[in-house]
Amino acid sequence: MRTRRRFSAEFxxxxxxxxxxGHETVAELATRHGLHPTQIAAWKRxxxxxxxxxxxxxxxxxxxxxxxxxxxxxxxxxxxxxxRDFLSKAFDR
Length: 93
Prior knowledge:
The chain is built from three helices and no strands. By secondary structure, the chain is mainly α.
């Protein structure tokens, strides 16, 4: 009984990038790396489909950082307002 081979994400990305470049055919890549051409085609398709998400994730992370910073600033403003109100009451007496 043969066990399933597992490939790292780096290996898949390397093979998919080679397939996208097109310097060699998928069949040639399959022969050279001992893979099935269908597997390489699937990795290539997945890489192309997810390529746009890379750029969306960067803007999403930036928005998330911005939201966290905004929440932090709102908390600081609230703290300063409470302190100001407390001190103004103390000096009014």
